[in-house]
C-alpha cells in the first residue's frame, strides 16, 4: 500500500485560501505548538501566547495575507507574524513578566521516562534554570535563541521571521549563546558570580 506524501505548508495554504477547513486544521496542528512556545518564551505569559497563536492563524484567513513563497517558507512567515504580535503585546505592557508555566508541559522539552526520582528532579531543575536564563536575555537575543536553538528553525527562516540578514542572525545567536552561558553559570555558582562582580568605589 502506497502512503500519500504529506502536503507541504504551501499546498495547505492554497487549500485554506480556497475555503478548505480541513486544510486549516491540518496546518494548525502542524505549526501551532512551535508558535505557542515561541510566543510563550518571548512574552513570559501563557494568555499572551495563546492570543498570539490564535491571531497568527486568523491572519492566514484574511484576504490581505502577505505571504510570498519567493521570500521564504510559510513557517518563517508565521514566526514573523507571531513576533510582531508579541512585540505589540509587550508595548502594551501585557507581557515580558516572570515566566510561570509549571502546569504547562507543552512548553517543556521532551523528557525520557526516568526511574530515579532524584535524577528526574535534577533534570527538571536544569530545564527550569535554562528557561529562566532564556527569559532574562535581552529581547533581540532571546528571540534568536528561541527560534534557532529551542525550535531548531534554520537561519534562513529565522532571518525571514526577524526581518534581518542571515549574517545578523548568526552574529546575534553567537552573542546570545555567550550571554546564556554566563547566566547559567551565574545561577549554578551564585557566590562565585558575586565574588567576581566588580565593586564600584564611592568617594
What report would you give on this structure?
The protein has 203 residues and is mainly α. The chain has two domains: 1-99, Rna Polymerase Sigma Factor, Chain: A (Orthogonal Bundle); 112-186, Arc Repressor Mutant, subunit A, CATH 1.10.10. The protein contains nine helices and no strands. The protein has helices spanning 9-17, 21-43, 46-61, 74-91, 117-136, 139-150, 155-162, 166-188, 190-196. Helix 2 crosses helix 4 (74-91). Residues 95-114 and 191-203 have low confidence and may be disordered.
Spell out the key features of this protein.
single chain; 0% strand; mainly alpha; disordered C terminus; Rna Polymerase Sigma Factor, Chain: A; 67% helix; 203 residues; globular; Arc Repressor Mutant, subunit A
Task: List SSEs in N-to-C order.
Answer: HHHHHHHHH
Shape: globular
Mean pLDDT: 81
The CATH architecture assignment of the largest domain turns out to be Orthogonal Bundle
Please, how many helices? Answer: 9
Describe how the helices and strands are arranged.
Blueprint (H helix, E strand, L loop, with lengths): L8 H9 L3 H23 L2 H16 L12 H18 L25 H20 L2 H12 L4 H8 L3 H23 L1 H7 L7
Helix pairs in contact: 1-2, 2-3, 2-4, 3-4, 4-7, 5-8, 6-8, 7-8, 8-9
